[in-house]
Amino acid sequence: MSFSLADVARVSHDLWPLSGAKDWDAPGLVSGDPARPVDSILLAVDVVADTVAEAVQTGADLLLAHHPLLLRGITSVAEDRYKGALLARLIRADCALLAAHTNADVVVDGVSDVFACRLGLTDVQPITAGSTPGTGIGRVGRLPEPVSLGTLARRLAELIPPTASGIRAAGGYSDVIETVALCGGAGDSLLREELVRSADVFITSDLRHHPASESREQSVVAGVGPALIDVSHWASEWLWLDTAAAQLAERLPGVRIQVSELRTDPWDFVVTQ
């Protein structure tokens, strides 16, 4: 059975409906001839020079990325700018580009759902509910048995790919953790949500100084509030790619589907004091 790029896009939008994307997002087909056959797909979190080179070198017909290359408004795709250069390389190699971003965050078996499952959480529900039961941003659930914050941080270090930034935690090493809220990718916008405030810990990425500090200070005043664990944005979302690949393989029999194992976290090393 053969599939066109239009077929693959329809499958993608069935798995991760565009209606679930945030208003500011830009998921969907970015480039490529909808009529062109697709025999090989490469999945990656980021569209960067390394993943574009991997797609071209492996002969992929489609690079399916989590993060949209053209998320923010641009006025030029000239090749002296990196977005234009990457897009031009994909087009010249007849490799299409498709993004599944916040529409893949909110669904069952989406980014945060997979993260929660891999961490072993039970009684999982979205932090902010979507229009369909079980969908929404982030997830909250319970560990099978309580562990210390330090033990949970070490468990995360074993679960997600290693990066220079490692695992950062705010809270006592021996604090008892049972209820876990999490959001794959950047999630500090959820810090004020009731299901986050009532959890024992909130795991996310890109926690900025002021939101993190304010959350911890409020927890001191209120006597309740989550410990915080900050992990790599790329690493927390990379976990989803295997599930996405399996879902695509089920619906696109005969298409070769690979997951990029290249580390696209932007940080290369850290110096401790």
Primary descriptors:
2 domains; alpha/beta; five-stranded mixed beta sheet; Udp-n-acetylmuramoylalanyl-d-glutamate--2,6- Diaminopimelate Ligase, Chain: A, domain 1; 273 residues; single chain; 33% helix; six-stranded mixed beta sheet; 10 helices; 11 strands
Question: What would you note in describing this structure?
Answer:
- With 273 residues, the chain is α/β, with parallel strands linked by helices.
- The chain has two domains: 5-104, NIF3 (NGG1p interacting factor 3)-like (Udp-n-acetylmuramoylalanyl-d-glutamate--2,6- Diaminopimelate Ligase, Chain: A, domain 1, 3-Layer(aba) Sandwich), CATH 3.40.1390.30; 106-236, 3-Layer(aba) Sandwich (Udp-n-acetylmuramoylalanyl-d-glutamate--2,6- Diaminopimelate Ligase, Chain: A, domain 1), CATH 3.40.1390.30.
- The chain has helices at residues 5-15, 49-57, 82-92, 102-105, 111-118, 149-159, 194-197, 209-222, 233-238, 240-251; strands at 28-31, 40-44, 62-65, 96-99, 122-129, 136-148, 168-170, 176-186, 201-205, 227-231, 256-259.
- The strands form two sheets. The protein has a six-stranded mixed beta sheet. A five-stranded mixed beta sheet has the order 1-4-3-2-11, sandwiched between helices.
- The mean pLDDT is 96.
